[in-house]
């Protein structure tokens, strides 16, 4: 309890810093219309990350049913100049990331480029609130209402909007690839029988579903002490890992909890074996909603995959018609839907024991429609950034795509 009290005091102290930073962002958004990314600026991912490597790229936007304007990038032509002749593939990033994570290694090491060079029509999704998806039909990121969402909304709005856009534009069912939170939204959608008419298969890297056995000590402390809830009720609706207040907050938690936080990324994700240390800052550099972090914390504490719990029975009744949030059942994922699941032995977030529970949920899956690839030395970020991920994960994944 003493730890809880001290960390809460730190939270209150740092709220002033967070508020000041929020005011700075508000000034940015209100004084310069184009400070928020717009494709007409030509400063998007295509211009800065794809065309510089010799690939042709298109910028697209799609508006979700709840008003968020998301950016997508399309790599339709491989570096040799040959146009894609295989099905579309939609890539969905994880928490605190955007689509850049699929591109920032060399073309021979980055999944986005590797898929393009193998003839796939590559689409890169950027979730709401990330650098290239900050726009909304009526809200700006400095407003609390803009951040009123958790991964439930990513399942209900972002994922369908992106999938439907690609399907309608190409006229083809697509493969899907997700990492971390990008796997969670796919698992939940599939468990509800959604999007099956537009998807061919799904490759899910560092799968996030059950989180009860998570081994990241820092993440467990945040979840078990309800710290995201405290920050939320203090008025902070956005968690930006680059914000000075967040950095100090994590340092405070580490100090009081006696955790060695010399390497925050490793403490959160596990000892990644094979990533370039000079590029670590590219991984966890995008904001998310505080409400989203609360939702993930609920999963860690309860061991359940459920809708967001509003804590008050009356609020849950209002939203769900019942006093407790409905749960998602992974056993209802259609057994004939092709799945490729890859996980690592050193992953602190997609823990081996939690993945085993997930695989048990899929015990009745058609044997020829489920590929499971385990890499003992891989941690959470190796699946998107390892120098040998092509040979270890991506080549087998492409074989899986080609067979489905």
Automatic annotation (TrEMBL):
Annotated signal peptide: 1-22
Span of domain Partial AB-hydrolase lipase: 47-105
Keywords tagged on the record: Hydrolase, Lipid degradation, Lipid metabolism, Signal
Single Gene Ontology BP annotation: lipid catabolic process
An example molecular function term from Gene Ontology annotations: hydrolase activity, acting on ester bonds
Active site per the UniProt annotation: 180 (nucleophile), 347 (charge relay system), 380 (charge relay system)
Top-level lineage group: Eukaryota
Pfam families cross-referenced by the UniProt entry: Abhydro_lipase
Record bears the keyword Iron: no
UniProt record similarity statement: Belongs to the AB hydrolase superfamily. Lipase family.
Protein name (record): Lipase
Organism field: Vicia faba
């Amino acid at each position: 309890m003493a730890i809880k009290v001290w960390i809460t005091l730190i939270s209150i102290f740092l709220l002033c810093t967070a508020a000041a930073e929020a005011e700075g962002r508000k000034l940015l958004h209100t004084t310069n219309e184009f400070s928020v990314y717009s494709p007409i600026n030509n400063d998007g991912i295509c211009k800065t990350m794809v065309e510089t490597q010799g690939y042709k790229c298109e910028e697209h936007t799609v508006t979700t049913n709840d008003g968020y304007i998301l950016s997508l990038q399309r790599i339709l032509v491989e570096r040799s100049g040959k146009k894609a002749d295989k099905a579309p593939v939609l890539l969905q990033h994880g928490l605190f990331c955007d689509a850049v994570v699929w591109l920032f290694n060399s073309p021979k090491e980055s999944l986005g480029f590797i898929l393009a060079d193998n003839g796939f029509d590559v689409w890169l999704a950027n979730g709401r609130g990330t650098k290239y998806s900050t726009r909304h039909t009526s809200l700006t990121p400095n407003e609390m209402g803009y951040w009123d969402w958790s991964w439930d909304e990513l399942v209900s709005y972002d994922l369908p909007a992106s999938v439907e856009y690609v399907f309608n534009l190409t006229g083809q069912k697509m493969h899907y690839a997700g990492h971390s939170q990008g796997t969670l939204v796919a698992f939940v959608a599939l468990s509800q029988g959604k999007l099956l008419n537009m998807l061919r298969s799904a490759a899910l890297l560092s799968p996030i579903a059950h989180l009860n056995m998570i081994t990241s000590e820092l993440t467990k402390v945040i979840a078990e002490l309800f710290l995201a809830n405290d920050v939320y009720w203090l008025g902070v609706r956005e968690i930006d890992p680059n914000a000075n207040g967040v950095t100090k907050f994590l340092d405070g938690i580490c100090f009081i909890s006696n955790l060695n936080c010399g390497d925050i990324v490793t403490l959160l994700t596990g000892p990644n074996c094979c990533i370039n240390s000079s590029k670590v800052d590219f991984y966890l550099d995008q904001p998310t909603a505080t409400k989203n972090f609360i939702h993930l914390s609920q999963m860690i504490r309860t061991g359940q995959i459920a809708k967001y719990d509003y804590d008050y029975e009356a609020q849950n009744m209002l939203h769900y018609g019942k006093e407790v949030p409905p749960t998602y059942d992974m056993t209802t994922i259609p057994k004939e839907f092709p799945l490729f699941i890859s996980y690592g032995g050193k992953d602190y977030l997609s823990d081996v024991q939690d993945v085993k529970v997930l695989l048990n949920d899929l015990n009745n899956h058609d044997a020829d429609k489920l590929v499971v690839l385990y890499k003992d030395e891989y941690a959470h970020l190796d699946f998107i950034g390892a120098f040998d991920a092509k040979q270890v994960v991506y080549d087998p994944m492409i074989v899986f795509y080609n067979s489905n």
